[in-house]
Amino acid sequence: MGTFRYMIRDTWRLLSRHSGLSFLTIVTSVAVFFLVGASILFVLNTRYLVETVEGDLTIQAYVQNSEEALETVARKAISYDSVSSVKVVTAKEALERLKARLGKLAEAVALLEENPLPPSVEVQVKKASFATVIARELITMPEVEEVVYAGDIAERLQKISRFVSRLSMVVLVVSLASAALVLFNTIRIGVYARKDEISKMLLVGASRSFVIFPYVLQGVLLGTLGAALSVLLLWFSYGMALTTLERSLPFLRLLTDRLIVLRVGAVLVLAGLSVGWICSWLAASRFVRRASRSM
What we know:
Helices cover 73% and strands 8% of the residues. It has 295 residues and is α+β, with helices and mostly antiparallel strands.
């Protein structure tokens, strides 16, 4: 019990002796983990937006004006695993849709002697990447006269999804490497500042773990505290961002449940604890190992 108390007291002494450096490390950790958390939230919202748009992506296959042709195309479309839903739209239903869109101008449609709109089959795909393939398959059918779909949007969604995934990985690696470097140098400075004291402790029989533990605890505290403060900052900033975007871009679909910030925050705190422990252990054990060899 006395040994543990000494280690805790020694850890506090390390933090207070290098208070300026510890404060700078915490500020840097907050900035780094905030950047990591913001990038994760950006990726999650982008993927949610892409999935939402993909869910609304519809392929319109205009077919010959016969029930048999409609049923044939509908059966063919629903047989694909990449298709989420298929809906048959008759010529009459298409005309009713047109009237609803025209509103007050719908009276002009009544002047037409016959319905000019062809029947169609609406096909929704699970992912944007499947749209082009399904459209090409449908256009080869003799019952299909024309296929209309947002091919450019589908291709752009694929590119956006790939780009965001790669960018998030780069940001994650660079940010964590920066946090690890800062914590490693902070602990290393503290070790070198007490190198004579550490050498004396080893000479009188102190174990390596006894010497290293205060530095490891220091790194864990700095990393965890920096990550926790970044989560707090992320919570308020994400709420402000949602409010601003909802006012300026109400049509934009985002993850409005702020509990997602807490889930990301749990990952950040765990990452801060792990990075702090690993970096401080490497920095302290490296010096202690050298000091033991020179004795």
